[in-house]
Amino acid sequence: MSIEDPTSFDPLERERWVRGTINDLNLRGILDRMDRNQKGELIIVDYKSGKAPMAKYKEPRFFALKLYAMLIKDELGEMPAELKLIYLKNSTIHTLKISEEDLIDVKNEILEIWENIKKAYKDDEFPATKNNLCDWCYYKPICPVFNDDAPSTEELRSINETIYDLKEEVEALDMFKDDNDIPKESPIGSKDRNKIQNKIKKIDPKKNCVIGFGITEKTIAKLRSADGLVVGSAICKEITRSLNNRQNPVTNVSKVVAKLRNKIS
Q1: In the chain, what are the domain boundaries?
Q2: What is the pLDDT of residues 86-114, one digit of tens each?
């Protein structure tokens, strides 16, 4: 191989599971490779199928490996000395020496991310982040960063919650073979099964008028009856893939959109 000769060394471990807990955050992953250098120090290695970034942009790519190093240190009681990223696309190796301070920093960073995630979940608010990729994003016409009247998923949430509650009432009624056996003083004593089912039938089609998110090539075919779809997962994935491969994301995303349209035509 042009990157390194696999016969010239014997890896300490390959595809090692790493797990750990920081406060209420559980971390786990698979470490591609772990070596020892000539000094006997631990080296953590990860393979990347894409191209290496320019050297001045390399450090952010080591975030996951820093977490692995932190977990390995906690598990083995030994501080890794170096991180190594091997990019197969353009046969490039990036390395980074690490210290105890680096592991403290990455611990604080992942905890900050985790706290932000919990807060966003609690507040039901996941704000968009504006960056240089926005001009290539098909979400831009409906993105709240660029539009004061961006669509909301609150209507869909409300519809689903209403349908769920109505179905719960039907299930409770179905526990009785004879409606006359239902205690009148119970919460469902005054409920009419047919009226509830008709209400569900009336509300359910409204879901097709609501914009949906998290749609991919595998799931879009199930949504043919929807009046409008916003496809983000597949497009965002293609944008990332295109940029990593230094390809034109506009051209590639257009191809993805055409393919998705064919799925529902």
Answers
A1: 6-120, 128-151+211-265, 153-204
A2: 998 888 899 999 999 999 999 999 999 99
CA nearest 13: which of 32, 29, 39? 32
Strand ranges across the sheet with 13-22: 13-22, 25-36, 42-48, 82-87, 92-97
Check residue 252 and give its pLDDT: 77
Mean pLDDT of 57-74: 91
Residue 240 contacts residue 193 (beta carbons within 8 Å): no
Separation of alpha carbons 202 and 240, rounded Å: 41
pLDDT mean over 209-236: 54
pLDDT tens, position by position, 174-215: 888 787 888 888 887 888 888 888 988 888 776 654 444 455
Better-predicted residue by pLDDT, 237 or 173:
173
Tokens encoding 257: 């959109």
Separation between Cα atoms, residue 202 and residue 198, nearest integer Å: 6
pTM above the 0.85 mark? Answer: no
**Among 112, 109, 79, residue whose Cα is nearest residue 97:** 79
Q: What is the assigned CATH class of domain 6-120?
A: alpha beta
DSSP-derived secondary structure letter, 152? -
What sign for the dihedral angle of Cα 93, 99, 100, 101? negative
List all residues 6 or more positions away from 231 whose beta carbon is below 8 Å from its beta carbon: 138, 215, 216, 220, 257, 260
d(CA 144, CA 137): 13
> How far apart are alpha carbons 146 and 136 in whole angstroms?
13
